[in-house]
TrEMBL record, chain A:
Listed GO biological process terms: attachment of GPI anchor to protein; GPI anchor biosynthetic process
Entry's transmembrane regions: 68-99, 166-187, 193-209, 230-251, 257-278, 285-306, 351-373, 385-407
Organism (species): Notiomystis cincta
Protein family according to the UniProt entry: Belongs to the PIGU family.
Protein name, per record: PIGU protein
UniProt superkingdom: Eukaryota
Keywords carried by this UniProt record: Endoplasmic reticulum, GPI-anchor biosynthesis, Membrane, Signal, Transmembrane, Transmembrane helix
Compartments, as annotated in UniProt: Endoplasmic reticulum membrane
Pfam families, A to Z: PIG-U
GO annotation, cellular component aspect: GPI-anchor transamidase complex
Major localization listed first in the record, in broad terms: endoplasmic reticulum
Membrane topology of the entry: Multi-pass membrane protein
From TrEMBL, chain B:
Protein name, as recorded: GPI-anchor transamidase
Family indicated by similarity: Belongs to the peptidase C13 family.
Top-level taxonomic group: Eukaryota
Lineage, top ranks: Eukaryota, Metazoa, Chordata, Craniata, Vertebrata
Keyword line: GPI-anchor biosynthesis, Membrane, Signal, Transmembrane, Transmembrane helix
Residue spans crossing the bilayer: 330-349
Active site, per annotation: 133, 175
Subunit comment: Heteropentamer. Part of the GPI-anchor transamidase complex, consisting of PIGK, PIGT, PIGS, PIGU and GAA1. Interacts with GPAA1. Interacts with PIGT; this interaction, via a disulfide link, stabilizes the expression of GAA1 and PIGK and links them to PIGS.
A GO MF label: GPI-anchor transamidase activity
Gene Ontology CC terms, in alphabetical order: GPI-anchor transamidase complex
Database matches in InterPro entries: GPI_transamidase, Peptidase_C13
Known pathway: Glycolipid biosynthesis; glycosylphosphatidylinositol-anchor biosynthesis
Biological processes per GO annotation: attachment of GPI anchor to protein; GPI anchor biosynthetic process; proteolysis
């Protein structure tokens, strides 16, 4: 499978290089959907310039990147385009390898369950075969590399690409089963942007499953392993944060990065839900609503963990989607990451109910974003409500997409154990409804 | 006596600032008030270039006006105060407290046209007429903001300190209008109001054809009074104070003259409402002096022995274009680099096992 992957990588690199040289690069770099205050390239350059002038880049509300990014780009700033292209390629390769391993795991588990007779007799058409699973990793890499969102994010040189690659390596480490590496990469991902903290739960569930430790609250081995993983994660996080202190000998970066992510002071429009609310809110209530909005990101972890404890990788996917919808400064790069994982669940296609409408919604909204931005900012004949309407529609589309996949997944699981033709007690055909 | 008349008032030009602050069709009478005063003032000689007319709404071309292009002040449509030559300087939403205060104090952006400026000097007599809806200490502008009597008094003080008026006559026709002149503290201001604090100023007559009240009582009687004035009349301010007694006006008009230097008896109506020029006719010729020679320079300059700089040599071009790019001054501290790479190597070896160490070393 190496040759097609190399071809895909080459095609992606060509597309990106072509776009870098064209005039679209400057246009894309300043679009708010692609560059948010957290990961805009302009701000990285500004921060490094401030550093050259002897001023801390965190003074003033310009620079919100972590010190490790400062270190990385201090030496690589002339090769920024190459760095971002290589980052995208690394992300795609990491996802490819991860999904390859995951497919093996899935297949093994499926075989085990068939032999244990856990499946109903008539579900032969629902079982995944190696033939159809063969091309999934390539499709994942393709979906990531050639997704217009990723390409735009790369051309804009948004550091979202770096966040995505760290999360991709985290996924790879988790699926390979190495708790230590997974904890280290999760700590790095949390350090970069705060929200991958919620990915702790799916990673833990997956590693427990891999170690064959049952997930019972009273089981001692469960708690032991959890403590081990949590302590690895927390120790690496603390080490990374302390190390960043020594870069500039100050703790300035903590309010600038994490304080900024949590308190959302910058209300530049983006594709998220925060900016409009807080632009029109009275000061008195803003703290309360900031808390409510931030809790919304972390809130779904525990219910999803309870429901999806047998399927941690799907849980990871849903959690990634929730992060990129509800985070404080989302960009299309975040959307691209979880969309890259969609081919893994392509076998759920027959159970998806609204996929046509949702894909239309997402595509139309992506096209309408620049149109309504132009109407609002340049033509003056629209206002922020129009842009926010498109933002809302886009996010609703994403949420419905995720919940559609969730429904399809659960439905397939139900059919697997209860058979395809469901009957009610009196023998008539029954319909499965998600309550 | 003639000399006394000549020296009676020290003004050389007249200005008028006429403000109507209400919008909407049912406030027709306020626009009619202002236009009546405008008409009188123009008739008595003040040109449009010296009148700043601020009307908050357009009654003549209002879609509800059954007689378009007219604003009547008497019932039975006897007197159309709108006419062909009304020049409105601030119209509609431009009539704001900010614009009014800017006009008075002269703090106007440089792009404002002349017709919107009050270009008065220290020999100007200014008539300021305001009408609209008011209360105790404030006047409402456009249903959205208010000007307080304190602000107005401060604006007049600014005008006094900038020498923007010689004498100022302030007339206000609103409910509780006397409260607006309570706070004045600058010299040479005379003020008249249509009602005392606690009283409402009432409107005069509704016209059944147009459907609204056409004028306010006070201004109606003032207009009647002014119709008798011509540029040469000697009527003085005391007569103006008697206009509209309580029997006709229902409210009690008030006035304030304590800040005014001259006796109101000696102040002519035309000092404020008209633009009466004082002309001195001489019989003899006035000699014009030759221009004085240029004054000697007081400070002899020392000659410095410098080469004259040629234009092209002003910047050290050779230095600039051969400048090397500045070296980046900041480097990450050594401890950080060491720590980071030590961590990375530790992670690497932890995952891949110690056995690779011997291949490295």
């Amino acid at each position: 499978m190496a040759a097609p992957l190399v071809l895909v990588v080459l095609a992606a690199v060509t597309v990106r290089a072509a776009l870098y040289r064209s005039s679209l690069a400057a246009f894309i770099a300043e679009r708010v959907e692609v560059a948010s205050p957290l990961n805009a390239w302009k701000r990285v350059v500004e921060g490094l310039a401030l550093l050259d002038l002897g001023v801390s880049p965190y003074s003033g509300a310009v620079f919100h990147e972590t010190p490790l990014i400062i270190y990385l780009f201090h030496f690589l700033i002339e090769y920024a385009e190459l760095v971002f292209m290589i980052t995208d390629v690394l992300t795609a390769v990491a996802l490819y390898l991860a999904i390859q391993d995951f497919n093996k795991v899935v297949f093994k588990k499926q075989k085990l369950l068939i032999e244990l007779d856990k499946y109903a007799p008539d579900v032969a058409e629902l079982i995944q075969t190696p033939m159809e699973m063969h091309y999934i990793p390539l499709k994942v890499a393709l979906f990531y590399l050639l997704n217009p969102y990723t390409v735009m994010s790369c051309v804009a040189k948004s550091t979202c690409a770096i966040n995505n690659s760290v999360i991709a390596f985290f996924i790879l480490a988790t699926i390979k089963g190495s708790a230590f590496l997974s904890a280290v990469f999760l700590a790095l991902a949390t350090y970069q942007s705060l929200y991958p903290l919620t990915l702790f739960a799916p990673a833990l569930l997956y590693l427990l499953q891999r170690q064959f430790i049952p997930i019972k609250l009273k089981s001692k081995s469960f708690w032991l392993y959890t403590m081990q993983y949590a302590s690895l994660y927390l120790c690496s996080l603390v080490v990374i944060i302390c190390l960043s202190f020594f870069l500039l000998n100050s703790w300035d970066f903590i309010p600038s990065v994490y304080g900024f992510i949590l308190s959302v002071p910058d209300l530049t429009p983006n594709i998220g839900l925060f900016w409009y609310f807080f632009a029109e809110m009275f000061e008195h209530f803003s703290l309360f609503f900031v808390c409510v909005f931030q809790i919304n990101v972390f809130f779904y972890t525990i219910p999803l963990a309870i429901k999806l404890k047998e399927h941690p990788v799907f849980f990871l996917f849903v959690q990634l989607a929730i992060i990129s919808i509800f985070k404080s400064y989302p960009t299309v790069g975040d959307v691209a990451l979880y969309m890259a994982l969609l081919p893994v669940w392509s076998h759920l296609y027959r159970f998806l109910r609204n996929i046509f409408i949702l894909s239309c919604v997402l595509i139309f909204c992506s096209f309408l974003f620049p149109v309504l931005w132009h109407l609002w900012i340049y033509a003056g004949s629209a206002n922020s409500n129009f842009y926010y309407a498109i933002t809302l529609t886009f996010n609703i589309g994403q949420i419905l997409l995720v919940s559609d996949y969730f429904y399809a997944f659960l439905r397939r699981e139900y059919y697997l154990t209860h058979g395809l033709h469901l009957t009610r007690q009196d023998g008539t055909e029954a319909m499965l409804v998600l309550k | 006596d003639q000399a006394e008349q000549f020296l009676r008032s020290g003004h050389t030009n007249n200005w008028a600032v006429l403000v109507c602050t209400s919008r909407f069709w049912f406030n027709y009478r306020h626009v009619a008030n202002t236009l009546s005063v405008y008409r009188s003032v123009k008739r008595l000689g003040i040109p449009d270039s010296h009148i700043v007319l601020m009307l908050a709404d357009d009654m003549a071309c209002n879609p509800r006006n059954p007689k378009p292009a007219t604003v009547f002040s008497h019932k039975n449509m006897e007197l159309n105060v709108y006419g062909d030559d009304v020049e409105v300087d601030y119209r509609s939403y431009e009539v704001t407290v900010e614009n009014f205060l800017r006009v008075l104090t002269g703090r106007i952006p440089p792009s404002t046209p002349r017709s919107k400026r009050l270009l008065s000097d220290d020999r100007s007599n200014i008539l300021i007429y305001m009408t609209g809806h008011g209360g105790n200490g404030f006047l409402k502008f456009q249903d959205s903001e208010e000007i307080t009597n304190v602000e107005l008094a401060d604006a007049f003080e600014q005008m006094w300190q900038k020498r923007r008026y010689n004498e100022l006559l302030f007339i206000i026709d609103t409910c509780q209008g006397a409260s607006m002149y309570e706070r004045f503290y600058s010299p040479n201001i005379m003020a008249l109001a249509s009602s005392q604090v606690g009283e409402d100023s009432l409107s005069h007559q509704p016209d059944l054809g147009i459907g609204v009240h056409l004028m306010d009582r006070y201004t109606f009687y003032v207009l009647e009074f002014l119709e008798e004035i011509h540029p040469a009349s000697q009527t003085n301010m005391n007569d103006l104070f008697q206009v509209c007694p309580k029997s006709l006006c229902v409210s009690t008009p008030g006035h304030r003259t304590d800040l005014f230097e001259r006796d109101p008896q000696s102040v002519l109506i035309t000092d404020f409402f008209g633009s009466v020029r004082k002309v001195e006719i001489t019989a003899g010729a006035l000699p014009l002096q030759r221009r004085a020679p240029a004054p000697e320079s007081r400070f002899p300059e020392e000659e410095l022995a410098t080469e004259p700089l040629k234009y092209a040599e002003q910047l050290p071009v050779a230095q600039i274009i051969h400048q090397k790019p500045k070296q980046k001054d900041w480097h990450p501290p050594g401890g950080f680099i060491l720590g980071l790479w030590a961590l990375i190597i530790m992670v690497f070896f932890k995952t891949y096992g110690i056995k690779h160490m011997k291949h490295v070393f």
